[in-house]
Task: inverse folding
């Protein structure tokens, strides 16, 4: 009766010379694909953050337009525009994400025309790769109450 040792089942046939030469090709393929994969990954992340910043600007202009449009007794155009500008700057001050030095939210003076208040804001997005220097802007209009 023959018995089989557990060690014999684990042993593999010796690798042929042809199989040994294929092991290096996997490393070469990985080295060629890795930069493309990383570029794609960082591009998706950068673009996602740019879309997030666009959403922050949109919400900031809505906050500013709402602050300027709500009814306050004895208000003037200067009070409306200053409250809208202050609310817009405050809403986007700490919420923007960038890869470079701090991004400053630019808020031009709001425009009042025919009881419609229009608030706009923009920022120069400092991302990486192709999205660097992208101008992101948002604008919101509301009727004065």
Result:
């Amino acid at each position: 009766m023959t018995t089989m040792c557990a060690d014999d089942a684990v042993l593999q046939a010796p690798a042929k010379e042809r199989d040994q030469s294929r092991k290096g090709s996997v490393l070469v393929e990985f080295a060629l694909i890795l930069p493309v994969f990383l570029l794609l990954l960082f591009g998706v992340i950068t673009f996602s953050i740019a879309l997030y910043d666009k959403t922050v600007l949109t919400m900031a202009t809505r906050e500013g337009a709402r602050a300027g449009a709500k009814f306050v007794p004895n208000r003037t155009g200067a009070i409306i525009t200053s409250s809208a500008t202050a609310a817009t700057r405050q809403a986007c001050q700490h919420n923007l994400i960038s890869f470079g030095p701090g991004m400053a939210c630019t808020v031009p003076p709001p425009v009042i025309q025919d009881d419609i208040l229009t608030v706009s804001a923009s920022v120069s997005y400092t991302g990486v790769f192709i999205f660097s220097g992208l101008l992101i802007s948002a604008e919101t209009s509301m009727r004065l109450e």
